[in-house]
Each structure stands twice: as C-alpha cells, then as structure tokens.
Design goal:
It is a single chain. This protein is mostly helical. Among the domains are: about 1-40; about 500-573, Winged helix-like DNA-binding domain superfamily/Winged helix DNA-binding domain (Arc Repressor Mutant, subunit A, Orthogonal Bundle). About 85% of the residues lie in helices and about 0% in strands. It has 23 helices and no strands.
Length: about 575
C-alpha cells in the first residue's frame, strides 16, 4: 500500500512538474517573441539594406505605426548617410520626410528646423529638385498658422522653379502636378475656392497614364472638397465614397482626412448619425497610424457641435474639453510644441547674410592686397592711358572737324537741290497753268464760234419755216430736225473737249457736291470758261431767263453767300 501511494505521489508530482515546465516554456517563448518584435521595431533602418530610397521609405512608414520616434531616427540616419555619399537630393528627401513625420506628431518646430537645414543644403548644392521639395513643405507648414502670404510665396516659388525644370526635362511633369495640387488644397483650406479650382484644373490638364494612377485619387478628393464649397454636399460625399477603397488599400492613414471630410458633409446635410460615425472612424485611424494628429482638435470640435445638436450635452462637454486641451497643446504659443512658432526665424536667410558678409570682408582684404601689389602697374597704365587719351582727343578733333565740313557741304548741296527742285516745280506749275488757261481760251473761242454757227443755223431755220416758195413742207421739217440734232452734237463735242482739258473738274465737283444735276454740272463748266449768260443760253439752247434762274439755283446748291462770286468760286475747283 505504501509502495502504491509513493508511486501515485511520484506520478502526481511529475504531472505537476510537467505542467509547470510547459507553462514556463510557453511564457519564455512569448517573452522571446516580444523581445524580438520590440527589437525589430526599435532597430534603426539603414539605406545600405535597400535598393532604393522609396523601398526604405515604405519600411520606415510601417515602422512609424509602432514607434514614430524610431522612424524619425531612421530618417536622421539616412540623412547622415546620404550626406556622406554626397547625394544631396536623397539627403534633402530624408530631411523633408522627417519633417512630415514631425508634422504628423504636431511637432512643428522640429519640422521647421529640418526644413531650414534641407533648404540650406539644397541651395548650397544648387539642386532645383531638392529646393522644390523644401519650398512645398515650407509653404504647407506656414499655411497651418494662416500665414497666407508667406505660404503662397513659397508654393509659387516651387511652381515657377518646377516649370523651368519641365522646360528642360519633360519627365519632371509629376513634380509639376504636385506643385499645382499643393497650391489647390492650400487655397481651399484658406477659403479661396476659385483659386483652388484654377490650380486643380491645371493638375488634370497635365495628367497622363502613369502619373494618373499615382495621384488621380488625391485630385478627386480635392475636387470633392471644392464641390462642397459650392454647396454640392451630396456630390462631394459620392465622390469621396468612390475613392475610399483605394485609400484603404494604398494609403490608409490618409483616411483620417477622408473620413473627417465625410463627417463634415454629412453634418451639413443633417445626417448626424453618419457624421458621428465618420468622425469616430477618423479618430480611430489617427490613433492607429499615429498620423494627422493636428486634425484631432478639429474632429472634436465637430463632435462637440454634433452632440450639442443631439442634446447629449455630457458628450458635447467632453469633446469640448478635449478640444481645449489639444488646441492648447498643439497650437497655443505657450505649448512646448509651438512656443517659438510665432517668432519663426528664417535661418536660411540669416545664414546666407552671414556668408555674404564674410565673403565681402574677404573680398575687401583681397582688393587691398591687389592694390598694393599692382600699384606700379597701375601707374604705368595710367600714363599710357593719358597718352592714348590725348592722342585719341587729337584724332577725335580731326575727325569731328572733317565731319563738320562734310556735313556743312552736304547741307548746302541738299539746300541747293531743294531750291532747284522747287524752282523747277514752280516753272512746271506756271507752264501748266498757262497751258490750261490757253486751252480754256481756245475752248471758249471755239464755244463762241459754235454759238455763232448756232445763231446762223437758227436764223436759217426761221427763214425756212417762213418760206412760201416751192420747197415742200416735208423737206423743210427734215432740215429743221437736222439743225436741232446738230445743236446736240455741238454740246457733246464741247463737253468732250472740256473734259480733255479739265480732267479732274467733274470729279472734284461730284466729290464735294454729289447732289448736283447734269444741268448744274453743264452750267458749272460754262461758268469756268467765263462765258456770259447770253452765250450760255445759246450754247445750252435755253432762254436767257432760264440761265439766270439756273445760276440762282446753282448758288443755293453750292451754299454761296451774296458776297461770293460764282465765277471765282467755280474757277478754283
């Protein structure tokens, strides 16, 4: 019995011992796994272990979810490594990514310090692509504190610099779109919807295949926000819900912003349940991915308003309390995070000014040494220059005098040629006037002869009409019609000859007085030849009274006053 009891005790103790050892082994394994995971999360990543900066950055972003401080240390190590390798662009990218991580933690002062160091490094190396990266980040951080002018100035500098880069190399178009995109959402956050839409449209204009895949969804989010500014809240919600699956897969931390936007829009259309849900989701994602902590006060502000509208004043008070604490922590000037932000110093500018002063002092010292060394040479040069100036002055005086004489001769020659030309034109004008006057006299004489001939023919016509001899009446009428036709031909012949002598007369008359009748024009032609009213009557085949009447009417059409002679007026045409 004792033996059996002893065996039973041994078996029982063995069972307890085995259970105890098994439990210890399990605990030891769990401890080892935790230590391994903790060590893995606390390990600073090295660029040497990765094929590219982008590949390392993916791991650093994953590391940030567990330990943001170690992620920042990894980027700091990468910055020093790339600096040793003289790779300025990747060194600057390490600093800017570190600034972005500080921004997620709302440690803006550290972010600014990194960006100023990055800007100094980029400027020293004159790397435009690196400078663009820094300008974009500086513009964003200045916009957080509503320093609009400074923020927009940096973003425009980045845009203009990138445009020049695209002119040289079109592959930089992706960075150009990022510049437009950054300006778009900065203007939108500052409340300028029109400018935001302008820059967003510029983004869409430059999209192509590969670039479209990378950034298109971010542009669609911004487009939705601009829709909400215009009051199209449901359309904005539909656009955001459409792109949310892509962000869940490719950029889950961005959903802090996405869900905050959705909560805002649902709040605007009065759907408090969905608004609360999306605000809570945004807080959970921010806590999970340790990102966009600066949005947490904004979310609590929305929740406080939402709970108050629902009548849940306890939750509204708690949200307001959290809002006050976080706002003081992140944005109050007394906070350790932002204590120096209200007096941001442009370290880059101050450093450049210091360098310029040092260079200026060195240059002055160098000039003083060169002045002492080159004094003798300068003296000899001065003597040579004086001699050359004196010789040059004599030569100049000689050339000047020669030029003056030639100028005087040319002036006299041109004056003589001008005077001769004027005299020649005057002679030609007088000859032309005399010839015109002579021809008009000949025409007037010819006209008088025509008038005399018409008088004879008129007398013959009268006698034929009164003849009581043997000539029959038909023959008399034929001769009378022939004489009348001859009068019409006389006028046509006169007008043809008048126009050949005074070619521009009718043209000038019609231009100045377009309403004159054909009879008025005939009368003007006869007045120009200075014919008497009686002669005009005979040549035109009308009575003397008709001539006087026509002259009176012509004066009225020409708007001549009583003191103006019709003959002198027509003669000047």
């Amino acid at each position: 019995m004792l033996h059996l009891s002893l065996n039973a005790l041994i078996v029982a103790n063995s069972s307890v011992l085995i259970k105890f050892m098994t439990r210890q082994v399990v605990l030891l394994m769990l401890l080892m796994m935790s230590i391994s995971l903790f060590a893995q999360n606390d390990t600073i990543l090295s660029p040497k272990d990765y094929n590219s900066f982008e590949e390392m950055l993916v791991q650093i972003n994953e590391q940030r979810l567990q330990n943001p401080d170690i992620a920042i240390k990894s980027l700091d190590y990468a910055y020093r490594y790339y600096l040793e390798q003289r790779d300025t662009l990747l060194a600057v990218r390490s600093l800017t990514e570190s600034a972005i991580n500080y921004g997620h933690l709302v440690q803006y002062q550290n972010a600014y310090d990194n960006l100023w160091n990055a800007l100094f490094l980029a400027d020293e190396s004159q790397d435009d692509e690196a400078i663009v990266l820094v300008y974009l980040q500086l513009g964003r951080y200045y916009s957080f504190y509503k320093r609009k002018d400074t923020a927009i100035d940096y973003l425009n500098k980045a845009l203009n610099l990138n445009k020049k880069m695209v002119e040289v190399d079109s592959t930089n178009v992706e960075e150009l779109i990022i510049c437009y995109y950054t300006l778009a959402y900065t203007y939108r956050e500052l409340g300028d919807g029109d400018q935001a839409k302008f820059y967003l449209d510029s983004c869409y204009m430059h999209l192509n295949g590969n670039i479209e895949y990378k950034i298109r969804h971010y542009l669609d989010v911004e487009y939705a926000q601009i829709q909400s500014i215009n009051g199209n809240y449901q359309e904005a919600i539909n656009s955001l819900l459409k792109v949310e699956p892509w962000f869940e897969k490719n950029s889950p931390s961005f959903r802090v912003l996405l869900f905050t936007y959705l909560g805002d829009h649902y709040l605007k259309i009065g759907n408090l349940k969905l608004a609360e849900q999306y605000f809570e989701d945004a807080l959970n994602i921010s806590d999970k991915y340790k990102s966009h902590l600066d949005y947490i006060p904004t979310i609590h502000k929305r929740l406080s308003s939402l709970y108050a509208n629902k009548g849940d004043y306890k939750k509204a008070f708690n949200s307001q309390k959290l809002l006050t604490e976080l706002d003081a922590k992140y944005f109050d000037s007394r906070s350790e995070y932002t204590s120096t932000l209200l007096e941001i110093k442009d370290e880059f500018r101050l450093t450049k000014e210091t360098q310029q002063k040092i260079i200026q002092k060195q240059r002055i010292a160098q000039l003083e040494n060169e002045e002492k060394v080159n004094f003798l040479e300068n003296s000899m040069l001065l003597v040579s220059i004086v001699f050359l100036l004196f010789a040059g002055l004599l030569f100049f005086q000689f050339i000047r005098k020669k030029h003056k004489i030639e100028k005087s001769l040319n002036k006299k020659r041109r004056a003589l040629e001008k005077r001769q030309a004027q005299e020649l034109r005057e002679i030609e004008r007088k000859q032309s006037a005399e010839l015109l006057e002579l021809k008009n006299k000949e025409l007037a004489t010819s006209s008088l002869k025509l008038i005399e001939k018409d008088g004879i023919l008129e007398s013959l016509k009268d006698r034929l009409k009164q003849n009581k001899g043997d000539i029959n009446a038909a023959e008399v009428n034929k001769i009378v019609r022939s004489i009348s036709h001859s009068n019409s031909q006389n006028w046509d012949e006169f007008e043809s000859r008048f126009l050949s002598i005074n070619r521009n007369f009718y043209e000038t008359l019609n231009k100045n007085y377009p309403k004159l009748s054909r009879g008025d024009q005939k009368l003007c032609a006869l007045v120009k030849l200075n014919l008497s009213s009686k002669e005009m009557a005979k040549l035109m085949g009308i009575s003397l009274e008709s001539v006087h009447t026509n002259r009176y009417r012509l004066r009225k059409k020409l708007k001549l006053t009583k003191d103006v002679s019709l003959t002198e007026f027509v003669a000047k045409l």
